[in-house]
Amino acid sequence: MALFTSAFAQLDLLRQPEQANEPLQAFDAADEYLLNHLHGQGLAADSRVLLLNDHFGALACSLAGHCRLTSSGDSHLGFIALQKNLERNRLTADSVTFVPASDSVSGPFDLVLIRVPKTLALLEEQLIRLHGQLAPGARVIAGAMLKHLPRSAGELLEKYIGPLQASLAVKKARLLFVTPADKPAVRSPYPTRYQLEQPPLQLLNHANLFCREGLDIGTRAMLPHLPRSLGPLRVADLGCGNGVLGIVFALANPAAELTLVDESYMAVQSAAQNWRAALGQRPVTIRADDGLAGQAAESLDLVLCNPPFHQQQVVGDLLAWRMFTQAKAALVRGGELWIVGNRHLGYHGKLKRLFRGVEQVAATPKFVILKAIK
């Protein structure tokens, strides 16, 4: 049990995805600092409050019932955590309105609380969207652990919102108090686009996408080795990002039935737009999900995956291992999981613990492309 205590509530909170003997908490000192400061300043019950990037619902669950609350973020796992933590603490689901980061929030808001995200492009997009959404006299407060608070985050807050004052550090956390100023509307630099040479595709990337300025080198290593002309297979691009693996595979396999899945709402939004641009009205399933948790057992013939090695600022193979186990459950017997990974991550050994056969399809000095057979 991980109890989170603030001036507003004492809560039992879970991270997502859940794991046995979880070593990490669903909250940190920045959450506590934000809430205790807010309690000291006072919060009217009719205040319209916007939370941005509340990782696992610590802020939302603490403030539920104390104000009119909207929470927005780009993680579907974060949304699942919010739902579970509301229920776990006997809080009503309708006490928080959740808006995916792929959609715009609707103000005006009296208070905006921001957890500074790892991807500052996401912060920039969120700040640009706040234009015209702040009520007169609105307060904007950002919080982060010192080790995750670059100077450029404060510069973005000053650029798009107004003058900034930093707090003293408490428990290695800091708050940034921003006074909204009369700023002109700004055209967002997102989404970005880049050109893929082979096959010739222009790929669109919303603000929170990994490698949004160009194709990541792992995917680049995998693309030439994707199987072609396989017939009417059921195929998933797991952790699809902008959809490039699934789209390139679909172009080379006209009879295949594709499902593209990611836990980032902006990734799903990007993948859907890229699919339509490349493949028009060809049928496809594209969804935000906890990997393949929502996929029926033994319903896929092939899974393609470039697994992540981090969740927010936490580095590790938890998400990759979870993807491998989900893929095994979703594949038919004889079905295949194709992955690309850094050599040093040792995915070959991990996959051999799950699958009856693992083959190396190709390799570069940095990456291996592996095929695991159920």
TrEMBL record:
Keyword Lyase tagged: no
A GO MF label: nucleic acid binding
RlmG N-terminal domain span: 1-181
Residue intervals of the Methyltransferase small domain: 201-371
Residue spans crossing the bilayer: none
Cellular component, GO annotation: cytoplasm
Keyword match Iron-sulfur: no
Signal peptide start and end residues: none
Compartments where found: Cytoplasm
Catalytic activity: guanosine(1835) in 23S rRNA + S-adenosyl-L-methionine = N(2)-methylguanosine(1835) in 23S rRNA + S-adenosyl-L-homocysteine + H(+)
EC number: 2.1.1.174
Free-text function comment from the UniProt entry: Specifically methylates the guanine in position 1835 (m2G1835) of 23S rRNA.
Protein name: Ribosomal RNA large subunit methyltransferase G
